[in-house]
């Protein structure tokens, strides 16, 4: 053994400009060809010192101990050790994108918010979508509420609308939030289950909180398993205030309506997607934006006055209630477009800090006790998560308008005030910023009075009427999904008393629903119905609450999964894929091997998925174009059989070349019928695409 260093940098390796490739000997004979050249920057330490060798730590002898003085080693490992910050206590798993909000209708009569003063005004936006219960590494398709948090960088400061894809919430008072979240997250003794509400603790809590029943109808509906972030609505949930330049206020609720339409998956698909592609939702957003298919939402407002609020059946400060669009129509005032992915996930998506307290002139809070509590929680949590009060210095959180204040110091302060004045009033010539009584933020001068008490307002007491309205506003298929979801979740509950207590709420919502769930659970008798604090009333059906009633007949942004075998008819493949692409859809080829298949005309069709990596749950519709031989081969492969069997069970539109019959028979797919298009002639491919616009052939499973 020798004490000679095994690798000594040559003098030209220090210049960083040498383009001649001198292999670096690692010492064990492995040659590394990574050296800086004209385009590749030189590796440095965080202090900017060029690094000569990033393969070997500094040792006393080739086989000796590592030396303490190896500052490169210590800096690299120290930094790695500190890479993690606490994940969000809720909404840990999320995915963000940049875009803009453009005002399509000026509303100065309603609000003094500068962005709404003129049609065409545009402000940059950052949006983060999320699930609530699971940790950062959980799967995208968990049955859960989706966060829909929007940060608008207006020219009068940042305005955050920290909403969800469901317009109501589980609880009425923020004091109960920790209990709600503790109950849904992994149980503290066993550390599971992860990212799901199907367990005893959650349903125990819910069954003791009748106010949650409306929200539970939503989370048991397909709203909680969206097809992608692009196909879901967003809601500000609470009632907020608009305040105009004259200081007059009105109430407002915010809505995000996807231009892409609404779409969800079915539960069996969700379960399988979580295995096949746990990143299904983030991949979808990434692909759409990278392909230039920018998702877009309309910003709508429901505006109403005190007189409406006084007459409304429920309290507008109660976040477990919504205002049906039939009662107060949604007025579209802007559009939100997402057109750019982040440069760096951690810097932007992870470090973005949404706070409900971030509002701008022209917007104000109401006394909704959930919103009031949130205003404390978000600011507080950012300090924990981002390490100090200067999280607004992180570029993603900093306003994009000028800002001047006397806040200073603290961890990681990036911009301290210049000059001597760091207080006011002061009498210095360069005395720093001053408050502006004319243009500054002012709260609505709303009269307040009342006894200091821990109390819930009496008109928060009706917990079932809107749950009933929601359920009855769904199509038969959607109602069946709610009953199945409740049955599934409660079947995971181990304690019979908890199952029965949940069911005992359902007769107050709908007796057929109660019966379906009781039957699904095998209950021998219907539990006695809970006595409501306030008798529920029958409200009119609200079509806007249904997904199926509000779909847009469109295949744009959707995906066709094309299962092909070697020798497949090239003309048919072309006839199928061309109109899908023309309609703004995507085609993914699923083949026996990832290299693809050779079509009948000898061309190579590259595959995006090998058959066991591309199950049909990843697609909105599927097509099977095979030769007789290919069909026989697929008929012997479980993933190929599952591909067609699942597509059939999930009510998807299926196109197939006649040879595919062998595969369908082997997969146990019953006779074809509607929603399945046999491609005997190429022009039937067009008919198939037209059918696909309906997204699912629900009659098959109804
Ligand atoms: Fe919350 C995060 C939405 C009630 C406390 N919440 C968080 C996020 C969204 C929501 C979308 C993720 C933001 C992001 O992407 O960074 N939360 C809601 C909605 C609610 C709601 C729509 C009811 C209408 N939340 C709520 C209550 C409390 C919190 C009642 C506490 C009293 N929420 C938090 C939090 C989080 C959060 C602990 C975790 C991470 C964060 O704030 O930044 O402060």
From TrEMBL:
Keyword Transferase in record: no
EC number: 1.11.1.6
Positions of region (Disordered): 1-59
InterPro entries (UniProt xref): Catalase (IPR018028), Catalase_AS (IPR024708), Catalase_clade2 (IPR024712), Catalase_clade2_helical (IPR043156), Catalase_core (IPR011614), Catalase_haem_BS (IPR002226), Catalase_immune_responsive (IPR010582), Catalase_large_C (IPR041399)
Catalase core domain ranges (all copies): 44-432
Physiological role: Decomposes hydrogen peroxide into water and oxygen; serves to protect cells from the toxic effects of hydrogen peroxide.
Protein name stated in the entry: Catalase
Species this chain originates from: Pararhodobacter zhoushanensis
Lineage of the organism: Bacteria, Pseudomonadati, Pseudomonadota, Alphaproteobacteria, Rhodobacterales
